[in-house]
Structures are given as C-alpha cells and as structure tokens.
C-alpha cells in the first residue's frame, strides 16, 4: 500500500498512529497540534477572503471577481487538507524518530496568496469596474 494511502487512513484512525514507534515528548505533539490549528486558521481566513471578494466587490467585473474568489477558496480548501496531512506525517515521523517531512506547500500557498494580493492591488489602483 502506498505511503499516501496509509497516511490518508491515519487521518481517520488516530489510534493506529499511536501504534507506530514510541510516544514522543508531549511538548512536541502539542506543538504539532498548534501548528495544525494555525494551518486551519489560515484555511478559514482564505475561505473567508474568497467569500468576501465574491460578495463585497460587486463593482468588479464578473470574471476577475470569480477568478480571485476561486483562487482564495481553493487555496483555503487545500490548506485545510494539507493541515491534517502534515499533522499526521509529522506525528508519524516523531514517533518513528525520523526527520520531519519537508513540503513545498508553504511556498505554493504563499505564491498563490501573493498573486491574488497583487491582482487586488492592481484592481484598487487602476479599477476594474463592470461595464
């Protein structure tokens, strides 16, 4: 079975995770949980931003408004999914006394948010009203 499928199963079976390796120092597990919660807060903020763009920029042309809104909403969904995946992978690595997992996701998320922010700056500076 692939590592991805095993990790996905652990999302819904945390007791199985406890069977792996040895119990790490609780401070590390709690720090991992705080990181998970921070990722979820980020996901909620992105989703809220997506809805805000869709609802509170009625003067913005439909296409750009939908594109910016969807970019934020999709980033929020991916961030929420990545949060639980990262939590499980990190907890598993700590229990197995392995290196913590590396990820490109923070860079991808940062670029997505930066691109949406730049588009919003352009809209604020130059306007993009529906005609």
Q: What is the rounded Rg?
A: 19 Å
Mean of pLDDT: 89
In whole angstroms, the N-to-C terminal distance is: 54 Å
Order of H and E elements:
HHHHH
Structural class from helices and strands?
Answer: mainly alpha
Query: How many DSSP helices?
Result: 5
Number of strands: 0
* Proportion of residues in helical segments: over 70%
Which sheet architecture does the biggest sheet show? none
Structure characterization notes:
With 131 residues, the protein is mainly α. The chain is 78% helix and 0% strand. The chain contains five helices and no strands. Helix 3 packs antiparallel against helix 4. The model has no long low-confidence stretch (mean pLDDT 89).
Name its key features.
131 residues, mainly alpha, 78% helix
Could you give the topology of this structure?
Layout: H1 3-11, H2 14-18, H3 26-56, H4 62-96, H5 105-126
Helix pairs in contact: 1-4, 3-4, 4-5
Sum this structure up briefly.
Helix content is 78%, strand content 0%.
């Amino acid at each position: 079975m692939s590592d991805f499928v095993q990790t996905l199963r652990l999302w819904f079976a945390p007791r199985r995770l406890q069977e792996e390796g040895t119990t790490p120092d609780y401070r590390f597990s709690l720090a991992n949980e705080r990181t998970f919660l921070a990722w979820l807060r980020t996901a909620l903020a992105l989703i809220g931003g997506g809805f805000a763009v869709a609802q509170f920029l009625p003067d913005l042309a439909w296409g750009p408004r939908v594109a910016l809104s969807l970019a934020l909403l999709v980033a929020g969904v991916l961030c929420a999914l990545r949060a639980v995946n990262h939590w499980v992978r990190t907890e598993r690595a700590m229990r197995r006394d392995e290196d913590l997992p590396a990820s490109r996701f923070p860079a991808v998320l940062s670029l997505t948010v930066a691109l949406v922010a730049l588009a919003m700056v352009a809209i604020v500076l130059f306007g993009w009203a529906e005609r």
